[in-house]
Amino acid sequence: MADDKAQIGVYGLGTMGSALALNMAEKGFRVAVTNREVEWIAEFMKEAGDLANALVAHDTLEAFVAGLKTPRVILFMIPSGKPMDMMIEAVAPLLEDGDTIIDGGNANFHDTRRRSAALAEKGLHFVGMGVSGGEKGARHGPSMMVGGSDHSWAQLRNVLRAIAARYEDEPCVDHLGPDGAGHFVKTVHNGIEYADMQVIAEIYALLHYGAVWPPAEIGKLFEAWNEGPLKSYLVEITGQLLQYHDPKTGHPVVDVIKDAAGQKGTGRWTVVEAVRMGQAANMIEAAVGARSWSSEKDTRQSAQTILGGARGALEVDAGTLSEAFMAARILCYAQGFRVLAATSEEYDWTLDFARIAEVWRAGCIIRSALLDDISEAFRGELPHGQLILTPRFASRLTECLPALRKVVGDAVAGGHAIPALSAALQWYDTMRQGFGTANIIQAQRDFFGYHGFERLGEEGVHHGPWWD
Ligand code: 6PG
Question: Which residues, if any, are the signal sequence (predicted)?
């Protein structure tokens, strides 16, 4: 009976897929589910409890597809890359004109563009959807960034708006542009996430190694910051996790965690794309680089002996640190949005930056009080496309910059490693100099390679007197 058919299908019952399927079922949608390993399906249905009434489990891909209302909508929550290509190959022959396949993983947007184009030739629609917020977010309200056709958005809108996180009753999801736009916005979200996390880690290190504050005390400071303008999910969870003790040893739990960070690629893709677009998101690059260096633990341990690892004592003032943090956070978001703007122009996406900031205000990992101000700033005039030049942020930066300069200066003098905080200051100082250093670069290029340069106030290509 047509009425029994599900409104949406979720393929992939791992952590995120299960959570999203349950979220949809709870919001009253009839959801078909299946999984490559069929034995997971019964387990999932058992754990679904009462929500199982809204879920229809299938053992085969054929039955799953046949159990969906047409035009169909299928959300794939599977590992990105090759598995997605294999899945598309398997499912496409079972689909019909107007059906939509959604990739809800952290995919590279170039792959999403390629897949969209290939499926469009078969009359099928492909949506690249960034989903942020981890398992809890997926289950109770994620932030979602959708890229795809208007047709797919019309099919999906009701479900996604129902399951999304809400900021003052406004769902944190939107159709941001075609093909790869959603996945790219999620990629840059993660780039900002990397940089904000690194800034937090550096602030922790200055307090802990420079001012010898115990982790729990630093946790309390983060908790206090979370009541003010620095309020954000990452500040909140850092405040909490710093106060945990390891049950095995009784030490603060952060002291027993190996200082080697993982990374799956989205931070790196942001940097690669920034460079390709002629931008330099140096804070995000610093954060990606810091994770890479962190994984060279053995080398760093040897270097500490060979090169000396002493860090000087620091006198830190919590108020100054909080202002430095605010300056760095503004600069980090500004870099992320700049990369988005350049990419949007390259691919004709016409991204709505105010909307993106709004979609990030709840549910996602980088949600923070600042995003409300950012969305307002994007609704106004944006001089040279730069958030840092809007009146609101220019004046906030002017207020906070002395603190950033003091923190970076003291930390550098004391031999503390602060790649992201110092990158923030370097970007700021570079951008505020109307006359920079590139005259020397141009002279060198012309001197050794006859590359030519522009003269101030004159048209055309010129060469130096060294060629006369
Ligand atoms: C989110 C997160 C999430 C995840 C990424 C980043 O928005 O919910 O960004 O997608 O944390 O996988 O992971 P890595 O730190 O491993 O690159």
Answer: none
Inter-residue contact 186 to 266 (CB < 8 Å): yes
pTM of the model: 0.97
- Of 77, 80, 103, 106, which is best to mutate to test ligand 1, by the most ligand atoms within 8 angstroms of its C-beta? 106
Terminal CA-CA length for the chain: 87
User: What spacing in Å lies between the alpha carbon of 187 and ligand 1's midpoint?
Assistant: 9
Six-digit token pair at 192?
A: 């900002």
Ramachandran quadrant class, 54 (left: phi over 0; alpha: psi -120 to 50; beta: rest)? alpha
Residue with tokens 């931008």: 279
Indicate which residues carry an active-site annotation: 186, 193
Cα–Cα dist 279/183, whole Å: 19
What CATH number does the domain located at 187-431 have?
1.10.1040.10
The residue to which tokens 């009976």 are assigned: 1
Atom of ligand 1 nearest to the CA of 190: 9
CA–CA distance, 221 with 217 (Å, rounded to integer):
6
H-helix or E-strand spanning residue 128: strand 125-132
Q: How does pLDDT run across 90-145, given as a tens digit for each residue?
A: 999 999 999 999 999 999 999 999 999 999 999 999 999 999 999 999 999 999 99
Residue nearest to atom 15 of ligand 1 (CA): 263
Take atom 12 of ligand 1 and give the residue whose Cα is closest: 264
**How far is the C-alpha of 277 from the C-alpha of 82, rounded, in Å?**
26
H helices of 72-180, where? 82-91, 109-120, 134-140, 150-163
From the CA of 29, how far away is ligand 1's center (Å)? 27
Q: Where in the chain is the domain with CATH 1.10.1040.10?
A: 187-431
The residue whose CA is least distant from atom 11 of ligand 1 is 134
